[in-house]
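Summary of Year 1 activities. Much of the first year was spent building the evaluation harness for sequence design. The harness presents a backbone, in tokenized form, and records the residue chosen at every position. We chose the following record to illustrate the format because it has been used consistently in internal testing since the harness was completed.
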């Protein structure tokens, strides 16, 4: 019985001492590179800079090219060319931060352009070109979990507002018309990050 009491006293002393000497929150690494998807700020490769202990600014960008040719290239039957660009930026503020995770609020904006050209042989108007652009603005909250000091993943939820503008070819009138939409809703942000 005396041995059990001694072990319990030693264990209690160790636990109290561990609470008093808990390691402080690790300093935030200044830079972050990530691969991410966000229907607010865009998808692709992102760079984040952390400053003033609780703030971060992140930029995201991507370019995608696609071409499809049906038939020989010099005498094609159909040809489709797509170019997609997107750019985004967001500002973050930590609400709560520990060694393994942080909860943050953010606000941001994104800009996306899609250029699409469809060509068909023997068409009266050859080169149906459609240019679309979308501007998104919004705000939300996110959670970032650190698997290791240099590796983390984050998930965010935002409320966003999109403004879409484009042109559309109308076959019945053989002309282009403006195409505009405005939409609000929820957005999701997901990223895998390397911190340095």
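For this record, the design step produced the sequence shown next.
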């Amino acid at each position: 019985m005396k041995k059990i009491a001694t072990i319990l006293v030693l264990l209690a002393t160790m636990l109290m001492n561990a609470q008093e000497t808990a390691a402080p929150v690790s300093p935030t690494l200044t830079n972050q590179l990530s691969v991410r998807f966000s229907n607010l700020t865009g998808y692709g490769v992102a760079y984040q800079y952390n400053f003033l202990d609780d703030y971060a600014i992140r930029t995201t960008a991507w370019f995608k090219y696609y071409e499809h040719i049906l038939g020989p290239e010099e005498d094609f039957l159909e040809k489709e060319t797509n170019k997609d660009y997107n750019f985004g930026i967001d500002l973050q503020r930590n609400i709560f931060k520990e060694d393994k995770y942080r909860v943050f609020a953010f606000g941001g904006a994104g800009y996306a352009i899609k250029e699409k050209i469809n060509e068909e042989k023997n068409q009266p108007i050859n080169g149906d070109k459609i240019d679309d652009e979308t501007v998104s603005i919004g705000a939300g909250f996110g959670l970032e979990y650190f698997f290791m000091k240099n590796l983390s993943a984050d998930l965010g939820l935002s409320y966003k507002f999109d403004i879409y503008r484009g042109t559309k070819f109308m076959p019945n009138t053989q002309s282009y018309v403006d195409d505009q939409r405005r939409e609000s809703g929820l957005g999701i942000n997901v990223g895998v990050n390397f911190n340095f």
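The chain has a mean pLDDT of 86. Quantitative recovery figures across the full test set are reported in Table 2.
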